[in-house]
Amino acid sequence: MKKLINDPNQVVEDMLAGMVAAHSNRMKRLPNTNVIVRKEAPIQGKVGLVSGGGSGHEPSHAGYVGKGMLDGAVCGEVFTSPTPDQIFEAIQAVDSGNGVLLIIKNYTGDIMNFEMAAEMAEAEGINVAKVVVNDDVAVEDSTYTTGRRGIAGTVFVHKIAGALAEKGATLKEVEAVAKKVVENVRSMGMALTPCTVPAAGKPGFELGENEIEIGMGIHGEPGIEKTQIQPADEIAQILLEKILDDLKLEENDKVAVMINGLGATPLMELYIMNKKVSEVLKDKNIYIHETFVGEFMTSLEMAGCSISLLKLDDQLIELLDEQADTIAFKK
Amino acid sequence: MKKLINDPNQVVEDMLAGMVAAHSNRMKRLPNTNVIVRKEAPIQGKVGLVSGGGSGHEPSHAGYVGKGMLDGAVCGEVFTSPTPDQIFEAIQAVDSGNGVLLIIKNYTGDIMNFEMAAEMAEAEGINVAKVVVNDDVAVEDSTYTTGRRGIAGTVFVHKIAGALAEKGATLKEVEAVAKKVVENVRSMGMALTPCTVPAAGKPGFELGENEIEIGMGIHGEPGIEKTQIQPADEIAQILLEKILDDLKLEENDKVAVMINGLGATPLMELYIMNKKVSEVLKDKNIYIHETFVGEFMTSLEMAGCSISLLKLDDQLIELLDEQADTIAFKK
């Protein structure tokens, strides 16, 4: 295992120290926690947005803490849910009396811990709403999940719910638009290589020299099939077909596209994937409002990508277009 | 070789098609070229900025085409200088009569081809100035270079010269500030793994299971030494020491820091590197004005990173802080 780390058991600690050192003008770390919040939190008159999950998916989620997106991110150990007490601290730190929305990726541990934290917060008189993101169409039920997994589409939930919260909407309104995004976003990924959790010291699974896996989860959960490497155009079509089957887009529908790198995929290859994605959508007369290409939700140094499509209506377009000013997402 | 590509000889073509499809609201591709320019080029009353070089370093340089940075980027084949005719087309497309600054990384092929293009442009009556970036302190002279190589520090040249050009400065003024950045920026990198040029099909060099290379170039040019993997803190100190030796910073000097991933390095590891970098600079009473962490100049799927320091004065701070709106760099 060759990694730029010090102690495999200290990677989250060291990362957060380096992140806060880099961005102390934007964010702060709550003392004795792995919680990152906006420097000015809590923001008066605004619903607070909190997300989080296991680390190793950077820039998710701390990279999205800032104006127009999240108020707080709770960083668990690598690929491990954050604990309820830390989530509770995040909720308390961002609540200005207008309530807090929790944006949770659908993993059993995350659901359980965020729900416990919500109960703790409610006992303290804080209004809490929850939205569970389950955008990954690859498989129903998975290693750590009942139902579909939550992956890169979560970033659209941060963006759109964050934009509405920034305008001063109520908790109910912010929750409703977050749920609308969840209903309209679908993703699917594939891997060229596995990744190694530092504390484990060896890859979470194996892929042969010319083998890829279609439909992999962001923690290396099994996908649909292992197959020989294929041209990017064919891989793009496989992923897109399953997304389109599920999202049931019609001619003249509008979408946002996200081509997400899993950590070790050159930007060149993500753009090559986008070539086919844009062609297929154009052929189907689906209008692409905006395309995001980059690393949004990664799996350490896994090579591979995911594609996300978000079906847009006028409200979602307006909110997607609003300003955002975070480390990893600026508009 | 497992890559998300179609034909190894078509990767630049496919990438540019996917890039323009994603960002057609911002950029256009000049017909029958690998030249990307701002959608609104040429911009009246403004000095044009053109950079470029071999592809495989994305987001360099097309990712920096936009408001406050470049007007045009010329994309060569992978790790191969763009041809003079294409550079000439870029110059013509961005010149509004106020002249064009070429920002060239110090590689023999790039220098030769950009100089030929400059001569072609001057023969057509276009004023051209050139700045050569040689920020890499690792080695004097290298595989493709006489003198020091140009690497990630180039992005600071794009940013600062671009900001001054946007304000309507003259070609002489923009050239002068670009040269000031070159005089004040130093970088050094290291690699954990090699990368594979698609058309070659195999890695450009070898590293053992626990071996790293200090001072590597962004095309895999040899560095200072191959050594066993060390803790991130020690690697950060090795790179930083050589940079600081050369840059001769004093107490209370101000710097901008860039921690640049080479393609396959998780953001987590870049932040872990930044932890030590920020500590060392703080210990020396050097003030960090801003820290940039991410992928700015990559080497395909090479794992590793580079550190860049830019010594700042009031003018450079003002220009660094100005707005920029490109795919890969927004302020």
Give an overview in words.
Two copies of one chain form a homodimer. The first copy, chain A, is globular. Chain A has two domains: 175 residues, Dihydroxyacetone kinase, domain 1 (Rossmann fold, 3-Layer(aba) Sandwich); 137 residues, Dihydroxyacetone kinase, domain 2 (Hypothetical Protein Tm841, Chain: A,domain 3), CATH 3.30.1180.20. In chain A, 32% of the residues lie in helices and 22% in strands. In chain A, helix 2 packs across helix 3, helix 4 runs antiparallel to helix 5 and helix 6 crosses helix 7. The model of chain A has no long low-confidence stretch (mean pLDDT 97). Chain A starts with 10 loop residues before the first helix and ends in a 10-residue tail after the last helix. Chain A has a six-stranded mixed β-sheet, sandwiched between helices. Chain A has 331 residues and is of the alpha/beta class.
Quaternary structure classification = homodimer
Distance between the termini of chain A: 37 Å
CATH superfamily (homologous) name of the largest domain in chain A: Dihydroxyacetone kinase, domain 1
Domain count of chain A: 2
Pathway (chains A, B): Polyol metabolism; glycerol degradation
Pfam families (chains A, B): Dak1
Subunit structure (chains A, B): Homodimer. The dihydroxyacetone kinase complex is composed of a homodimer of DhaM, a homodimer of DhaK and the subunit DhaL.
Function (chains A, B): Dihydroxyacetone binding subunit of the dihydroxyacetone kinase, which is responsible for the phosphoenolpyruvate (PEP)-dependent phosphorylation of dihydroxyacetone via a phosphoryl group transfer from DhaL-ATP.
